[in-house]
Amino acid sequence: MYILKIEFATPEYDEAVGIRYDVLRRPLGLEYTPEQLAAEYDEIHLAAYSDNNQMLGYLNLTPLNEQHVKMRQVAVAERWQGQGVGKRLVAASEALARDMGFSKIVLHARETAVPFYLGLAYQKIGERFEEVGIPHFKMEKGL
Fold it and tell me: Which tens digits make up the pLDDT trace of 40-53?
């Protein structure tokens, strides 16, 4: 498996949107709007690939300021879940964020994903809240 930075508005980005839709949006009956996707043009896009170049997962890093970056839209294709793809994507994003000079990653974790992030040394911050109609927690990790 390997991790690559992919570019906005490319076939690779479109494939990543498909994985995100299947994993994150379709189960909630939600679609991505053109405006939501267009807002990602200047964000950092990472994708995990199998050794035979099949996209396995994706995540997005959105700089918030000079010190903090937000991890968003973490999605691993269903048949690859539980095989370390998400852990490798998160580790690669942390290394990249550190190299870019960020000191902290923040994220909004679905309640079901909190144990995954706790296992990667993220900490819950504050109380549970609703986002896209389901429970989430704010989490963060210093780099």
Answer: 999 999 999 999 99
Residue 107: C-alpha distances to residues 9, 15, 98, 116 (Å)? 24, 23, 16, 13
Q: Please state, in angstroms and as integers, the Cα–Cα distance from residue 4 to each residue in 93, 109, 127, following that order.
A: 10, 23, 34
Determine contact, residues 4/88, Cβ cutoff 8 Å: no
Say whether pTM exceeds 0.85.
yes
Q: What angle do CA 125, 66, 122 make, to 5 degrees?
A: 25
Question: DSSP state, 28?
Answer: G
Task: Give pLDDT tens digits for 3-24.
Answer: 999 999 999 999 999 999 999 9
Q: How many CB atoms lie within 10 A of CB 28?
A: 10
The Cα angle at residue 74 between residues 41 and 35, in degrees rounded to 5: 35
Beta-bridged to residue 106, according to DSSP, are 70, 140
Query: How many angstroms separate the CA atoms of 63 and 71, rounded?
Result: 9
Q: Among 138, 142, 68, 122, which Cα is nearest to 100's?
A: 68
